[in-house]
């Protein structure tokens, strides 16, 4: 039976993942932790502990007290914030990860942490980006993600720790907004479409990036963690994606529900530069072959669900 510790539980992925894991494994078997102690549902629907992931002793104490056998480490700064505060990003993203891996090693836990399309850089093939390819990212976030992939591989080879991970694209959800990411425009566009009927994009026309709807991301985490480990060759950094889109493609999809939606541009050069250093679209064949990954939502299905969840009045 699983006893799961989740760090960064009040973040974009964490807040929905904790609810899903509590539903599957039982509310008292999922210990949610975050540096913040808000009145969020996650803090009330099962065990919750305040935790700064740079404090390895505190993490170990909580993990021991709750007798955890699985760690899902989500606490991290996203790409745009990491680029503004590179030293903080290094200390938090790498310090938190190595602490979580050490706790997992000491307690013999199964381990998951997300990587990202940010682990690729300008010299990576732009389209159908292969699973195994050049990784020379030019952002601090990307440097953290590549280092994290390697570190998780290291703990698997050196200590036999059951580490697993996914390279997530931009994740789109109507529950908890992301913060400080380059792909955040693809979430904001839906909120503004419903509340204002228009959106000003900080990412330019024709800039393609991978995206995925949150329910597919959550299913992918659970499916990978439940997969037969002996079948995994790429255990720490599976490419996963559901679509490759630019702002115009999302706008066109929104107009199928809200025909008068207006998209404008006011490109932010910093986030645009990050986006341009990432792939246009990655290849998720290894994930499909090794553990059966398949996204259920394409662009139009995601748009229809996002807009109806956010309360758009259809034409
Ligand atoms: C970001 O934009 O920083 C994240 C990511 C793709 O890792 N959403």
Automatic annotation (TrEMBL):
Domain of life: Bacteria
GO biological process, one term: L-threonine catabolic process
Pfam families: Epimerase
Domain NAD-dependent epimerase/dehydratase: 4-231
Example GO molecular function: L-threonine 3-dehydrogenase activity
Coiled coil: none
Sequence similarity: Belongs to the NAD(P)-dependent epimerase/dehydratase family.
PANTHER family in UniProt: L-THREONINE 3-DEHYDROGENASE, L-THREONINE 3-DEHYDROGENASE, MITOCHONDRIAL
Protein name: L-threonine 3-dehydrogenase
């Amino acid at each position: 039976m699983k006893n799961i510790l989740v760090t960064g539980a009040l973040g974009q992925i964490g807040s929905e993942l904790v609810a899903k894991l509590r539903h599957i494994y039982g509310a008292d078997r999922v210990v949610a932790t975050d540096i913040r102690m808000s009145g969020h549902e996650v803090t009330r629907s099962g065990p919750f502990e305040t935790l700064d992931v740079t404090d390895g002793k505190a993490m170990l104490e909580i993990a021991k007290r709750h007798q955890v056998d699985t760690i899902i480490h989500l606490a991290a700064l996203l790409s745009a914030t990491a680029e503004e505060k590179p030293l903080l990003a290094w200390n938090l993203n790498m310090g938190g990860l190595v602490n979580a891996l050490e706790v997992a090693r000491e307690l013999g836990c199964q381990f998951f942490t997300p990587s990202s399309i940010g682990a690729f850089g300008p010299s990576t093939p732009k389209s159908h980006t292969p699973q195994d390819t050049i990784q020379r990212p030019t952002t601090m976030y990307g440097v953290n993600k590549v280092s994290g992939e390697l570190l998780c591989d290291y703990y698997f080879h050196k200590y036999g720790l059951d580490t697993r991970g996914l390279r997530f694209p931009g994740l789109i959800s109507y529950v908890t907004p992301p913060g400080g990411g380059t792909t955040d425009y693809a979430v904001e566009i839906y909120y503004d479409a419903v509340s204002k009927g228009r959106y000003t994009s900080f990412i330019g026309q024709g800039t393609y990036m991978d995206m995925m709807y949150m329910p597919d991301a959550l299913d992918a985490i659970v499916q990978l963690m439940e997969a037969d480990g002996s079948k995994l060759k790429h255990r720490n950094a599976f490419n996963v994606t559901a679509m490759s889109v630019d702002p115009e493609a999302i706008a066109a999809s929104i107009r199928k529900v809200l025909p008068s939606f207006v998209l404008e541009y006011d490109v932010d050069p910093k986030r645009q530069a990050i986006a341009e250093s990432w792939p246009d679209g990655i290849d998720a064949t290894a994930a499909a072959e090794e553990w059966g990954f398949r996204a259920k939502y394409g662009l139009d299905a995601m748009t229809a669900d996002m807009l109806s969840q956010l309360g758009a009045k259809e034409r």
